[in-house]
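Attaching the record inline, Q. Sequence:
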Amino acid sequence: MLADAVAAYRAALGNRLLAAYALGSLAHGGFSELVSDVDLGLIVDDPLQADDFDRIEAVAESEKARGSELQSRLSVFWGTPSTLRGDEVGGRFPALDRLDLLESGRLLTGSDAARCSLPRPGSDELIVTGAEFALAYLAGVRSQASAGGSSLGSMRLAGEGAVEEIRNPVSLVGRGVRRVTKLVLFPVRFLYTAATGRVGTNDAAADSYLEIRVAPAAELVVAAREWRTGAPFDERAAVDLLGRQLVPLYTDYIADHIVRLGALGRDDLAKAFHDWRARLTA
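Structure, as predicted:
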């Protein structure tokens, strides 16, 4: 599947495709055929061109439409050396995925020299961009920094849907095990990255979370990790467990990040997290 996608991008971009990498769980481990995304990273030669976004998006949509469930999960991150260094705005390569590229990216084609000069994202940037992602994808709020789409690309905003799913486990379970495990493990991974400055693989993030003396959603995190690797998904038991522990998981994560964002002087994001918590607990 990755080979097909890379061939399609080579045809669309020609010699401007400097390198392509497998990212995410295909690179750092823990891939699950049942629920994982298929993450592909592209480094495209400068200068950034006006039609790059549309061209790259069109190839991604074409590959995702090839028919299989796995193909529909293709997620493409891309940038040029200048955008990846932060010299220019453009592309779609959020800080956490750039860190994943540097730490674990598995070269599929091109020259690995393309990433050698890229700066490592700092912990402050990881916290801020992770918070912006969470607000957009899980709370339906675009911050001013992400409003232009540079950090979120073509991702659909879950909006109020995610808030209602977190509050209503019957609705969430109806979306299937993939959606359930994503909504459970996203905050666990954000907490891990904020505390360590590292990419939060599901296993490492879950282990770290379970080491907390009073983890408000320990049973749910254990179950979600098992569900994503094929353990039986009892919907009735899942509804009960989500109903007891999902909102406490999110309120714990939100409280942690309100403090972190305030310390970074991002009162705008901290206030958005306050408002998000109020909507979850209303």
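The longest strand covers residues 17-23. The radius of gyration is 19 Å.

More tomorrow.
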